[in-house]
Every structure is written in structure tokens, then in C-alpha cells.
Amino acid sequence: MLLRTLLAVLLLGTVPAFAQPVPVPDCTVDVTLHEALTLDVAYHCRSSQPLSFVPEGERAQPFLSNFAGGRIEAVNGLVEAHYRFDLGGYARAIDTPAEGIQRGKGVLMPIGGWLLEPRGFQRVPMIDIRVRAPAGMAFSTGLPKVGDAWRLAGTTVRFAGYTALGRFELHELVVPAPGSLRPGQPKKDAVLRLALLEGFAESSRKAIVDWVQRTAEAEANYWHGFTAPEMLVGLVPMPRSGVGFGRTQPGGGVTIMVEVGETIDSRRLFNDWVLVHELVHSGMPFIRGRGTWFMEGSATYVEPIIRARAGWKTEEAVWKEWVRDMPQGVGVFPRGLPAASGRENYWGGAIFMLLADLAIRRESDGAKGLEDCLAGALWEGLDGAARVSLDAYTQACNRATGTKAMSELIDRHVNANTAVDLDALWKELGVALVDGRIVLDDSAPQARWRKMIVMGPPGRTARHVKLPWES
């Protein structure tokens, strides 16, 4: 009897593991990519109600064919829609990296550019996308892979990230998974998919891939792991030299687009800030409401710190940049940070992040800093694919740091519009610009905290990431 009782308990204990519901997509999409850069798309959606399938904007309409439009009735609980889309024609007509661009036989475009939005569901539908491409062509995205499908969940098609389609150079770079560099955590891998559209000089491609790999390593060192388990970075060649416009677009999976000169040398790449800035965005959610100042301020503030900790920039250079550029944001504080516009979003937000970094270190007696706030929120699930309120992010930061520093600063500078005296702040920190050079005073009242900001606190040594010419 005892044996049978134990067996029954063991069997009952195993049931929940096998009884977990497996998510079933609301829609499946089968896409066939053709050499001429056209797409044949077939939607199959489980629904008892009629659905409609809508392009993101009127500009896409001329490039749709074989599509009846309107409301489609359900037949035996299934709604089907079929259409052809002239991907190349649309990309050439739009011709902007933000919305869609073609280089050679490759296209970089948000999912919403070519995939119609299904409407009529009571909630945001889960969509599995399968793509067939001819030999020599490919499809890639930041969406997670589930079996042989790419899964779009938790967001509408409109807000989904970039896709790379056609002929392009694809690399799958192994990076440490989010949080996996924390002490005591098991080592896990994440994947950064790197898509280079056609047009980069043969002599530059290897250097560009190396730049992205090392930048991802520098970023992971700040966040104790990379910023996403899966990501697509699409690089668009441009005729001028240097690094140009960058954009992060989340939604289901995190994706980044950056313009890079067709021919460029390594030193110029590693002296640039755009990719590091965009990768900071990839580790943070979209802040709903008037939260641009918070998102851009975080990326502006953290970017030079990441490069300094990697050994690519000196501590003095970081402070010189802040002393020179932060005055561009000080004027927004009496009006309220949500009223920021233009450069105020970047530098007003960066001032706020400096104040938050200082406050967290003071309240935790140096045990925590802004990096713990940002990384902690990421590990809670407030990642680059999420959309949250400022209050939700603030509370996550407080939990991660064990302080109320962030919420108190929000009360002071967002709710009460308290002004900031930058000159007084520099004196408190012991930072002065003298004859074009930064002088740091270690006897200043807040010098102890200042010394932790750029290079990290004692005992958490910054990890140098070797530059190509140092290897």
C-alpha cells in the first residue's frame, strides 16, 4: 500500500510538467521570396469572426496585388488571405533606412512595411512567420525562432522590428546571454544576427564584422550580459565615410539599423558612438507618454561610459564631453523634462541620469550604480521589446538598487520641475575645465562617488576589450 501511495504521489507530481499549455499561434503566415524581390504571402488565422488585413499606410497600396481587401469571413473557424507584395518596388519608392531601403538585391525594412496587419481580434494576435527563399537569398529578423517559424508576439505588426530580405551577408555572432555574466550565474549564449546589405567594399567587411563583435562585448560588460537573447543588426552602406544614422526598432524582437560608410577603417569605427548608443536602447523598453528624454538621456549618458570601461576612451575625455555638452539640456528642467525637444532630450536626459547615478551610489554607499538599475530592469523583463510607463520602470529601478533614488528624482525633476545648477554640481564632484583640459579634484565633497561613475566602483574592475590594432 505504501509503495502504491508513493507511486501515486510521484505520478501526480509529474503531471503539471506535462500539462503546461503550449502556445498556439492565432495566425500563421507563409511567405515565398522571389528573385525579383516580390513576396507571395498567405495568411491563415484561427477566428470565428471576420477579419480584415490592412497595410501600414497608403504608400504601400500600389505595391499590393492579388488581394481583394475588405472583411474576410471565417470558414470553419479559419480566415485566409493571400496577396503579392512588390518588396523591391516599395523599398525603392520609400528609400529611407527608417522605413525601407534596398541595396543591390537586399532589402532592410520593418515587418510592418510588407506584412499586413490582421484586425478583428479581441487582443493582439500571436503570429508565426515562415519564409522560403531561393538559393543565394535569405530572411532574418530579431524575432525568436520557434521550430521553423519566426514568432511575433505581444505587439502589433505596425510596431514590429526590422527584417532583412534578399541577398545580403549574414553573420550569427555568439554573445553572452542577458545576465549571464553576473557572479554565480551559469554561462549562456545569445545570438546577434548581423546583416550587411550589398555595397560594402570587400576590404571593409571583415573590419565591420569585427567592430560589431567587439562592441557587443563592450556592451555586455556593462550589462553583465548582452541586452537581448536574440537581435538583428542591419548595416546599410552609404557613399560618404564614417558612421551615419542609427535607429533601434523593437517589437517582438529587438532590431537595430545603422548606416556605415562603404569604405571605412577600423579606427574610425571604434571612435564612433552611434552603435554603442543604439545598443543601449536595445536593453531598455519604450517609455510610453512623453518619455523620449528618459530613453535618449540614458543612451547618451551610458554610451561614453561603456566605451571608457572597454578602454576605448579616457575618463577625462568622458567628463570633458559632459562639461561641454550637458549645458544644452539644463534649460529644460524649469519647464519639466517631458517638455524637452531636440537636443534637450539627449542632454537634459543625460543630466538626469548623472544625478540618478550619483543618488544611487550615495544611498547604497557605493554598492550600486545606474548600471544596476538598468540591468536589473532588463532582467525583470523590461527589455527592448517592451512598452511600459515611466512609473513602472522607476519602480523596477528602485527594486534593483534597493533605493528610492530614481523615484525621488522623478518627483523632483519631472513632477516638481526643479532646476539644476550645473556649475555647482561640477564643483561638488570636483570636475573643472581648465585651459581646455579636465582637472579632477579628489578632495571635492562628492569625489568619492564621481570616481565610481566612469570606470566603475572598486572591486568591479572594468573589462578591457582589445582593439584590433592591440591584438
Give a quick set of tags describing it.
five-stranded mixed beta sheet; seven-stranded mixed beta sheet; globular; 15 helices; disordered N terminus; alpha+beta; 36% helix; 471 residues
TL;DR?
With 471 residues, this protein is α+β, with helices and mostly antiparallel strands. It has helices at residues 2-19, 87-94, 111-114, 202-223, 266-270, 274-282, 292-309, 315-325, 327-330, 343-363, 370-379, 390-401, 405-415, 422-429, 447-453; strands at 27-33, 38-46, 51-54, 64-65, 71-72, 78-86, 101-103, 106-110, 117-119, 127-132, 138-141, 145-146, 149-152, 162-166, 168-176, 189-197, 230-238, 243-249, 254-261, 286-287, 387-388, 431-434, 437-440.
What can you tell me about this protein's structure?
The chain is an alpha+beta fold and 471 residues long. Helix content is 36%, strand content 25%. The longest helix is centred in the middle third of the chain and has 22 residues, at 202-223. It is globular. The termini are far apart.
- Strand percent estimate: 25-35%
Number of helices: 15
Mean pLDDT: 93
SSE-based structural type: alpha+beta
Order of strands in the sheet with the most strands? 4-6-2-1-10-13-12
Could you describe the largest sheet, including whether it forms a barrel? Answer: 7 strands, mixed
Total beta strands: 23
Describe the protein's topology.
Layout: H1 2-19, E1 27-33, E2 38-46, E3 51-54, E4 64-65, E5 71-72, E6 78-86, H2 87-94, E7 101-103, E8 106-110, H3 111-114, E9 117-119, E10 127-132, E11 138-141, E12 145-146, E13 149-152, E14 162-166, E15 168-176, E16 189-197, H4 202-223, E17 230-238, E18 243-249, E19 254-261, H5 266-270, H6 274-282, E20 286-287, H7 292-309, H8 315-325, H9 327-330, H10 343-363, H11 370-379, E21 387-388, H12 390-401, H13 405-415, H14 422-429, E22 431-434, E23 437-440, H15 447-453
Parallel strand pairs: 1-10, 16-17, 17-19, 20-21
Antiparallel strand pairs: 1-2, 2-6, 3-5, 3-9, 4-6, 7-8, 8-14, 10-13, 11-14, 12-13, 15-16, 18-19, 22-23
Helix pairs in contact: 4-6, 6-7, 7-10, 10-13, 10-15, 11-12, 12-13
